[in-house]
Amino acid sequence: MFKSLINYIKDKDYLIGIYNDEIYIYNYKNIIDINNEYIKINLGNKKVKIQGENICVKKLENSEVLIKIDIKGLNFYE
Q: How far is residue 40's CA from residue 60's CA, in Å, rounded to a whole number?
């Protein structure tokens, strides 16, 4: 069952998990911009702008990023 769940998750274009003070993004293309007020991430066919405070990239790998942030807003755009 666990293997089926992993295959289901990896079959998606991207995955965004929002937790108490962290955001996990799987299968992103690149980070467009980051500053004290927001982070913009390219997801391929869409982009996301996450607004907040105390932004810190905790984990950065080829297709995964974990961001610690006090979220104030999240917007998708093309």
A: 14
DSSP string covering 9-37, please? HHTSS-EEEE-SSEEEEES--EEEEE-SS
Q: What is the spatial distance between Cα 10 and Cα 8, in angstroms, rounded to a whole number?
A: 6
Q: CA angle at residue 78 from 42 to 6, to 5 degrees?
A: 50
DSSP assignment string, 58-75? EEE-SSEEEEEEEEEEEE
**What span, in angstroms and rounded, lies between the C-alpha atoms of 59 and 76?**
22
Strands across the sheet containing 64-77: 15-18, 22-26, 64-77, 47-60, 38-42, 30-34
Do 19 and 66 touch, CB atoms closer than 8 A? no
HSE on the CB side for 22, CA within 13 Å?
8
- pLDDT tens-digit profile of 22-43? 999 999 999 999 999 999 999 9
